[in-house]
Design brief:
By secondary structure, this protein is of the alpha+beta class. The chain starts with 14 loop residues before the first helix and ends in a 13-residue tail after the last strand. It has a single domain, classed as Jelly Rolls (Sandwich), CATH 2.60.120. Helix 2 packs across helix 4. It is globular, with a radius of gyration of 17 Å. The strands form two sheets. A seven-stranded antiparallel beta sheet has the order 1-9-6-11-4-3-2, covered by helices on one side. It has a four-stranded antiparallel beta sheet with strand order 5-10-7-8, with no helix packed on it. It has four helices and eleven strands. The structure holds 2-oxoglutaric acid and fe (ii) ion. The site of fe (ii) ion has 4 residues, from loops. The site of 2-oxoglutaric acid (AKG) has 9 residues, from strand 10 and strand 11. It comes from Alteromonas salexigens. Its cofactor is L-ascorbate.
């Protein structure tokens, strides 16, 4: 009998999930980001895709931005449609379950103190985009780790729609990521500017953010 106590794991987290979590943790620790192909189990991709497909146009609303620069209009910065995930759908529930296990793994491995998670489905019709932005601003300390995954059935280079992750404000080449089904991208929200290039097809993604607890006397976290 081992004397080492092992934290109980949710029954539907497999050893391949644990291997994916470990790759995300080491990527975040060593580089501040991780790009893992085929990260999501097929079953999770399937239920997420189903839940996404059941959304109607009316379920999506315009994505917001944290801080506007100058007099730019939001729709000049991003024009995707988003629908927040609340666990009411099978896909949403399975995704929140999986990311909860990832949250616990990152907290155990990296002592990150990740407290909560918020996430939405996003739809980028052909030609739509999200210009270079940060997901969080230094000192505002809420979004700590960004996650993005893709629900497209297939994707090739000719379809465009890359997520480009820049190492810093001076990196002009960036790291282009094709939004292939099951690919998961994770990065430190305050560290990496990134953008979504226009695609030639409808592009479906799920974005999410692990947050710190920023509750105070008059503001209660999480906000939703
Ligand atoms: O869909 C993507 O690849 C990234 C989306 C994004 O950057 C965001 O929603 O903040
Ligand atoms: Fe972003």
């Amino acid at each position: 009998m081992s004397a080492i106590a092992v934290a109980p794991q949710s029954a539907d987290i497999s050893s391949s999930d644990t291997a994916v979590f470990a790759r995300i943790a080491s990527g975040l620790r060593e580089n501040g980001y991780a790009i893992v192909e085929n990260a999501l189990p097929e079953s999770l991709q399937t239920v997420l895709r189903l839940s996404q497909a059941q959304l109607s146009q009316a379920d999506y609303h315009m994505g917001g931005i944290g801080r506007q620069s100058g007099f730019q209009r939001i729709e000049d910065i991003r024009n995707d449609g988003v629908c927040w995930i609340d666990g009411a759908t099978g896909g949403g529930k399975a995704w929140l379950n999986w990311t909860e296990s990832l949250r616990q793994h990152l907290n155990r491995q990296l002592f990150m103190g990740l407290f909560s998670f918020e996430s939405h489905f996003a739809h980028y019709p052909p030609g739509h985009f999200y210009k270079t932005h940060y997901d969080a601003f230094r000192g505002q300390g809420n979004r700590v780790v960004s996650l993005v995954t893709y629900l497209n059935e297939s994707w090739s280079e000719a379809d465009g729609g890359e997520l480009v992750v820049y190492r810093d404000d001076n990196d002009t080449a960036g790291i282009p990521v094709l939004p292939k089904p099951g690919t998961l991208v994770a990065f430190l929200s305050e560290e990496f500017p990134h953008e979504v290039l226009p695609a030639r097809r409808d592009r479906y993604s799920v974005a999410g953010w692990f947050r710190m607890n920023t509750s105070s006397a008059d503001v209660v976290d999480p906000p939703r």
